[in-house]
Write a structure and sequence with these properties.
By secondary structure, the protein is mostly beta strands. It is 0% helix and 55% strand.
């Protein structure tokens, strides 16, 4: 596949056209420059609805050493009952210097609409695996990983070690990689980041959660997306006074009916896992604003307020991955500490 990239305009906006090789169509993307090494992308051709981020590889290393945290997600084409189920997973692993083997700890959640319950949480599962350096693709690792989501293979595309993948304008980097599932278990993607020193959860955090669901009345997948802000007190509680502890969420529905829920109460709790540094377990509780005209819960079919159990994997004291571990839904997301002016 060949691509052409236009020069960005004064607003840092440009286009990327990837010419497909039959049967793959040509794709057109709009990009926006975040930094000279990071672009945000959205598809603009009507062929599909893709979007994402492009990272520079720079002098990326293909040697893994130390501790890492990761998150991955995707649709499972092997599940027999339509619509295909979705799998989300997160975890941590370490690689000894000079070794190609890895080990760690993980949590995952898989939805199959044909099962009862439809969602299965897998918590606290050991991670095993190994890696080799690709002989055909630059700065690429071939990764085999067995975790709470099952056994899968990946292409692991390494990025510039000066980049912060969750917060590109943060001058504290760390690098890492983006993942592509290449096996038959899941059709999806992910991210791997070197784990910095992780402490407790203290400060104001922006929260993003994605709840991918199967529409109960058809075979059409749907989802709910949530953004919010919580305050971690470092002593097992999320919430906060004033404007902290609020969330907005919306479900994919025709013509946005009912409308988005705005200003929902948000709280939670957490417990640091003393046996696995950088991991915590906890809950988030999402309510509905008092007097809201057309209320609906963040988890369809549940009573409000909704409380979901989660595992939290800290990239650092300012960034964390989240994955749901109960049987209510299939939620994943992340926390990023706010840096307000």
């Amino acid at each position: 596949m060949n691509s052409t990239i236009s020069t960005p305009d004064a607003n840092g906006r440009g286009t990327i056209v990837s010419v497909g090789i039959s049967p793959n169509p040509t794709r057109t993307f709009i990009y926006y420059v975040v930094t000279p090494k990071v672009l945000r992308l959205t598809e603009s051709d009507g062929a599909a609805f893709m979007g994402g981020t492009a990272y520079a590889q720079g002098n990326a290393s293909t040697t893994l050493s130390g501790s890492y945290v990761y998150q991955h997600s995707g649709w499972n084409p092997a599940l027999a009952t339509p619509p295909t189920g979705r799998t989300v997973g997160a975890g941590q692993f370490s690689v000894a210097s000079g070794s190609t083997s890895l080990s760690g700890f993980s949590d995952a959640n898989t939805t199959n609409p044909g099962d009862t319950p439809a969602t299965t949480g897998s918590a606290g599962v050991a991670v095993t695996g190994s890696y080799t350096v690709s002989s055909t693709e630059s700065a690429t690792i071939n990764l085999t990983l067995s975790d709470a989501a099952g056994s899968s293979t990946y292409n692991m595309y390494m990025v510039d070690p000066t980049l912060n993948l969750l917060d590109p304008n943060n001058t504290t980097g760390g690098g890492g990689a983006v993942l592509l599932h290449t096996g038959t278990l899941v059709n999806g993607t992910g991210i791997v980041i070197p784990q910095q020193t992780a402490g407790t959860l203290v400060g104001n955090y922006a929260l993003n959660l994605n709840n991918s669901i199967a529409n109960a009345s058809s075979s059409t997948p749907s989802e709910l997306d949530l953004v919010g802000v919580v305050s971690g007190d470092g002593n097992a509680h999320f919430g906060g006074a004033a404007r902290l502890g609020l969330a907005d969420y919306d479900e994919v529905t025709p013509l946005d009916s009912p409308p988005a829920i705005v200003g929902a109460p948000l709280s939670g709790g957490f417990q640091i896992d003393q046996g696995h540094a950088g991991r915590a377990t906890g809950t988030f509780t999402v309510g509905v604003p008092a007097g809201w005209p057309t209320p609906y819960p963040f988890i369809p079919g549940a009573a409000t307020p909704v409380t979901l159990s989660v595992a939290i994997y800290q990239v650092s004291s300012t960034e964390s991955f989240i994955v749901e571990t109960d049987t209510q839904a299939n939620v994943s997301g992340y926390l990023v500490q706010q840096q307000l002016p």
